[in-house]
């Protein structure tokens, strides 16, 4: 007992003090996030209060781990070095705790979740991320405030800190304390899974700990479908996948077209140009077409009325790479990293490769740095001509921020490239990715009636302005009448919601605009981003070239409508108002979704829907395995 008391009196005193401080910071952080969930997220406070108690219990081992360096400080250093380093190291410790707490608040404000794989990715692409933070937040004031608060806390605790440091623990006991520390790290990083005590995802996230969730994300950064999710025999899955896609053959590998020539289905026998504009964070809820009253998207609303509008189309995920993956390769979202981030993928079955084999010139154009998210690498490996902000025409760009050039300049570059292909007599296919509707929401002055920076409303309205400008300029081109435009979002602006997969946060606009080729109409079938590539091929009369998992929306019966949605780990299959969710540990849950997509009530799982969900997601994994791709590695993801 004396030995234990001695160890407690010396070895644990600084560790205990710092762990207690960490626990206080964790609790205050949770209270702030709860306030944000209530005031900004619109959540009822009584539904979240249980997260406070559970969160405190989960914070205890995390606080012990965060304070653990001080155990090593006591056990390893001599009294002389402890006296020299105690105060400066304590300053660093307090500042780091506060800095992480503020970072959690900023991360929660954007994503309404604790740290996850996105936060992990942010440590890699520091140029864009730090630049984005500097342009979006008063970083200097925040750092100054943190330094002042740190100084106050250190001054207030200077005497308890000095008293907490004493003689080192006996050397014979160091191994025992070190072993105990390793056990705590193992528990926090490996055994303490994300909390799932509530049907309200806000409550689950509040009960978590940001330090723990970050370590968990680091460990879970690569997920293999077969290892973690419900499976069926591969032959049954592939047979179902053919049936569900409506194709005799489904593959992830591009196969050269063996049929001779291309016979146009349009008057005059011309090969139409195809221009796909994938708009950053353009949620359907911003459009008057879907009930918005702020007049943010007059141009998109006009195009929706004059073109083919898909009213019930859903994004595959919550990240840009998921949208790029879904539209280019028509692949359901696999768990973990998007296929766009996988290394060394070539000869993938993509829309660009399929059109290129029929004579189209495929392009990928992006207003930011295409090295981000491996966009340049992915599209370049599939045979697209890649253009990003580094190789725009000299003198073209007049305005840019950390995320990219202003969308109007991106469209100017698009027009230049399209003119070149048209002059050479080649039909072109362009996949364009915009960037302006993104924090810090800055854009050229005088374009819209919301001064820059205009927050989300300004970003949306400016993005819409550039679409109207682009179409008006394109109308002056000789190739306009023979061009099919598709305007679609990559994902919604927010991914937060009560449900594990909040359906209303996946509803995106999709508009096909070709006034000389396609009549205005509304398509009300429930559908997915992965269906757009097959639908475009069908419009061009190339259904026979289609081996995608997605299917032609124009030939889907209402009862066949469905959408595939995902978070990083949860894979959702939405059919009608029933959502089947595949989760790690081979878990399957089913929910009844409310008409507005905001509520999800648990219900018994329909075996047939579960089989279809597995067919889509396992089928995609099988096809990628057959393609010969090893899978994702730890790389980064753009917000």
Helix-and-strand structural type: alpha/beta
Number of domains: 2
What is CATH's topology name of the largest domain?
A: Alkaline Phosphatase, subunit A
CATH class of the largest domain: Alpha Beta
Mean pLDDT: 87
What's the overall geometry?
globular
What is the number of strand segments?
Answer: 14
Give the strand content.
Answer: 5-15%
Describe this protein's structure.
The protein has 639 residues and is α/β, with parallel strands linked by helices. The chain folds into two domains: 2-219, no CATH class; 234-257 and 280-627, 3-Layer(aba) Sandwich (Alkaline Phosphatase, subunit A). Helix content is 45%, strand content 12%. The protein is built from 21 helices and 14 strands. It has helices at residues 2-39, 50-66, 68-76, 79-111, 117-122, 126-136, 139-156, 158-164, 171-191, 201-206, 210-219, 225-228, 234-245, 298-306, 320-329, 351-356, 375-381, 407-423, 455-474, 532-539, 607-627; strands at residues 273-279, 308-314, 361-366, 385-387, 428-433, 483-489, 507-513, 521-523, 527-528, 563-566, 571-575, 578-583, 587-593, 600-603. Strands 1, 2, 3, 4, 5, 6, 7, 8 and 9 form a nine-stranded mixed β-sheet that branches. Strands 10-11-12-13-14 form a five-stranded antiparallel β-sheet, covered by helices on one side. β10 and β11 form a beta hairpin. The longest helix is centred in the first third of the chain and has 38 residues, at 2-39. It is globular. The model is unreliable at 1-11 and 632-639 (pLDDT under 50).
